[in-house]
Please model this.
Amino acid sequence: MATPRIDVADSVVSCCSPLGDSELSEAEAVETAMIFGALSDPVRLRMLSLIASQGEVCSCALEGPLGKSQPTISHHTRILNEAGLIEGEKRGRWMWWHVVPEQLNQVARILAAGLPTT
Amino acid sequence: MATPRIDVADSVVSCCSPLGDSELSEAEAVETAMIFGALSDPVRLRMLSLIASQGEVCSCALEGPLGKSQPTISHHTRILNEAGLIEGEKRGRWMWWHVVPEQLNQVARILAAGLPTT
DNA sequence: CCGTCATATTGATAACTGTCAATGTTAAAG
DNA sequence: CTTTAACATTGACAGTTATCAATATGACGG
Model:
């Protein structure tokens, strides 16, 4: 797979019923759990933070600050990408990553709605 | 049992800097990752959904719908509780669980803020 | 074409996680 | 006190995950 799946036309959380509305279906639960799983690692959170705060970041610029090897960085960017949280574009030899605000908002909405009244 | 009253004293995500603001510290990242980890399991998400939609739920009422054994249910409620997402109260022999809206909102805010300040 | 640089992939390994049977604990009931 | 019901805890096992060394791919500069 030389080309990372950087198309988020279909957000991974497509319809995403909020937690409190109705009962979460098994399929939705698995789908949503996958996304939270991508967020459940300290390295990936700091990675996401770095990318979010800088707008666009090259993979090579993550290795240093995160203190991880190149394969490990590649591994984590892949997971964040597959969760629809970041997208990448290859320019020359460099891979540039940026966050997907829609997806972050979508996930946030799932949580924010998971309450009784509001 | 309509509106669960919450007396959550200290949210687990106490200060929780949003993703996009500054760089996430290692400690904050570990703390936040732990919470997302609690949300990264399909069974726990459906559990949270059940509790959220019913306001208050007994542990015994989770075993059936989730199709898991009693120790497994206990294991998951513990993890959600340690993440500050639910709170429990023992009344007689039954353990009653309710969600902690503040914590859900807090986590949601971390995500929603991780964007280019739209 | 050759060497170099940035990234992806593979393989191996240690650590973590979800699951249940068995057992412990505590509170209501008889 | 004894029994029973609801949860918690422990122990074991299978599946998953994070990590890095080694290697492959692919683009740029000579």
